[in-house]
Amino acid sequence: MKIADYDQALFHTHRSDWDSLLVLMVRTKDHFLSKKIEHFLHAYRFEHDYQIIQSQLYALLRYLDHAAEKTSDYLSELPS
What we know:
By secondary structure, this protein is mainly α. Helices cover 82% and strands 0% of the residues.
C-alpha cells in the first residue's frame, strides 16, 4: 500500500481528472481502491440518477479517508 495512491486519488477526484483516476485505478496495488474508483467512474459515466453518482463518490472518499488514516497509523508504528 502506498499512501501516495490515496493522495493521488483524492487529487484527481477533486480536479475531476477522470483519465488520471482511471490510470491510477489500473496501476494501484490496492484492490479495494481500484474497485471503488471503478464503481465511481462507471456511475459517473453511465448513471442518470445523481444520487447514485453521489453515493459512489462518497463511498470512494470515505475509503480514501479510511485507508490513508490506517496507512499513516501503520507507518508511524514502524521502528525507525
